[in-house]
Design a protein that fits this description.
- This protein has 1 helix and 8 strands, in the order H-E-E-E-E-E-E-E-E.
- With 164 residues, it is α+β, with helices and mostly antiparallel strands.
- The chain has a single domain, classed as minor pseudopilin epsh domain (minor pseudopilin epsh fold).
- A 4-stranded antiparallel beta sheet has the order 3-2-1-5, with helices on one face. Strands 4-6-7-8 form a 4-stranded antiparallel beta sheet, covered by helices on one side.
- Strand 2 and strand 3 form a beta hairpin.
- The longest helix is centred in the N-terminal third of the chain and has 53 residues.
- The termini are far apart.
Length: 164
């Protein structure tokens, strides 16, 4: 047996009222979700971004130290949201340091290192020194945001750098 299905012609899709009701429901859901995103999720993303920037710069300093056979260091200014990478004049026991690249400033809204509300709250050993042999200062850097969330960047003498 073969059944045929006929199109009746009166079922043409959604009505304008149904579409308006759906848009109203979606708008209410968005109005509820956006403040939550701005107040809780966005500060955590900024904190993670700042931690990744510091970790990347520390890894870069470690690699540059080995490739140019000079000491490198990353100096942090606790409380002012800034740090800088410096190159030493010797492979060990450098007495003169030159700035490599820009000073990284989390509070400068026009800079590429801008992370609103993130603060370098403490560091256990400042500056972090990198030697061409792969050795580096063991340290813990504490970052915090305006919501009280915090992250730590830890490094070991063997050269491991990680976010906790």
């Amino acid at each position: 047996m073969i059944y045929s299905i006929r199109y009746r012609g009166d079922n043409k899709g959604f009505t304008m009222i149904e579409l308006v009701v759906i848009l109203a429901i979606l708008s209410v859901m968005a109005l509820i979700a956006i403040p939550d995103y701005i107040n809780t999720i966005l500060p955590r993303h900024r904190l993670n971004g700042a931690a990744r920037d510091i970790m990347t710069d520390m890894r870069h300093a470690r690699m540059r130290s080995a490739s140019v056979n000079r000491e490198y260091r990353v100096s942090f200014t606790v409380g002012s949201e800034t740090y800088q990478i410096e190159k030493g004049n010797l492979s060990s026991g450098s007495s003169a340091w030159t700035l490599e690249g820009p000073i990284r400033n989390f509070a400068n809204a026009s800079g590429k290192y801008y992370h609103y509300g993130v603060d370098i709250s403490s560091i256990s050993s400042n500056p972090v020194l990198f030697k061409p042999t792969g050795w580096m200062t063991s340290t813990t850097i504490q970052l915090a945001n305006e919501k009280g969330q915090s992250l730590q960047i830890s490094s070991s003498n063997a050269g491991r750098i990680m976010i906790q």
